[in-house]
Design a protein that fits this description.
This is YicC family protein. Belongs to the YicC/YloC family. InterPro entries: YicC-like_C, YicC-like_N, YicC/YloC-like. The chain is of the alpha+beta class. 17% of the residues are buried. It has three domains: 3-68 and 121-139, 2-Layer Sandwich (Ribosomal Protein S5, domain 2); 73-106, no CATH class; 142-283. The longest helix has 45 residues, at 121-165. β1 (3-11) and β2 (14-23) form a beta hairpin. It has a four-stranded mixed β-sheet with strand order 1-2-4-3. A two-stranded antiparallel ribbon has the order 5-6. The protein starts with a strand and ends with a helix. Helix content is 62%, strand content 15%. It has helices at 42-52, 77-93, 101-106, 121-165, 167-190, 197-210, 214-231, 239-259, 263-283; strands spanning 3-11, 14-23, 28-33, 56-66, 73-75, 112-114. The protein is elongated and about 110 Å long. α7 runs antiparallel to α8.
Length: 287
């Protein structure tokens, strides 16, 4: 599931901006972009997020801006000189104009950094407050998306149940047509007088038993009920179970299609498959 949450939290003469966003993923994958002086707290920060945010490719971006605009910066002179030396050499060897090399070097990573090497506990506490507020907004975003997804999933499964109910009259008509077609074929090739009615009925029963879809219909109906029961449970991380149930639904629908021998039943089966594919797409994006 996607998610988004952003919070700006004032702290003394600074503003702490925290932004969380996520894309769907089978696992929890946290990618953090944080100020250099927050690196010592990165492990704790990741744990704070993973304890409350389940599954997804999660990007967290933390920025600390000075309200007064007079934040102290330090220049890494040895690194600056190294970049300048190497770039000047390449420029000379390749006969490339050096242009505004100064500005280019200053934009390179770690050349310019804030003077602060670490953060105190008071600032860390303020950052955690901002992070928790961002997670609250992130969770609310996911909840709203999840409710819309839940309504769509329930509608799709109910559509499958409705299509399943439409199979009964079609199945009765299929049996009648099969019996008539087989009888007509025998009469045409052997003649009515040479057909043993008792044996014919036995063969019909044997054949109809092989293509009977009663068990598949019963199991599919149970799977649909089970899916909706799990969907309505008040618990997180239900996506995998719903995925397993949808797979079982697919097996029953495919078996009914293989046994159909009826264009009208095949049409209903295709419509069921269409609804089930939409279910699978949605389930793949759930937590």
């Amino acid at each position: 599931m996607t998610g988004y949450g952003r919070v700006s939290h004032p702290f003394k003469d600074k503003t702490i901006n925290v932004e969380l966003r996520s894309l769907n993923s089978k696992y929890t994958d946290i990618r953090a972009k944080i100020p250099q002086n927050y690196r010592e707290k990165e492990h704790e920060l990741r744990k704070l997020i993973s304890d409350r945010v389940h599954r997804g490719k999660i990007e967290v971006n933390i920025e600390v801006a000075s309200d007064s605009g007079d934040e102290e910066y330090g220049l890494n002179e040895p690194l600056f000189r190294k970049y300048h030396r190497e770039l000047s050499r390449l420029s000379s060897e390749l006969n490339i104009p050096d242009g505004d090399m100064l500005q280019a070097i200053l934009r390179l990573p770690s050349v310019v950094a804030t003077a602060a090497d670490s953060i105190d506990e008071e600032e860390w506490s303020a950052m955690k407050t901002a992070l928790n507020d961002a997670i609250e907004k992130f969770t609310a975003f996911r909840t709203a998306e999840g409710n819309a997804m839940k309504e769509d999933l329930q509608l799709r499964v109910e559509n499958i149940s409705s299509l399943l109910q439409q199979l009964d009259p079609e199945e009765e008509e299929r049996v009648t047509k099969l019996r008539q077609r087989m009888r007509q074929s025998l009469d045409e090739h052997l003649g009515k007088d040479k057909v043993d009615d008792s044996r014919f009925e036995q063969e019909i029963l044997f054949y109809l038993e092989k293509i009977d879809i009663t068990e598949e219909k019963v199991r599919l109906e149970q799977h649909c009920k089970y899916f909706i029961e799990e969907l309505n449970k008040k618990q997180p991380l239900k996506g995998r179970k719903l995925s397993f149930i949808s797979q079982e639904m697919g097996r029953e629908i495919n078996t009914m299609g293989a046994k159909a021998y009826s264009s009208s039943i095949q049409k209903l089966v295709v419509e069921m498959k269409d609804e089930l594919e939409k279910v699978k797409e949605q389930v793949a994006n759930t937590v």
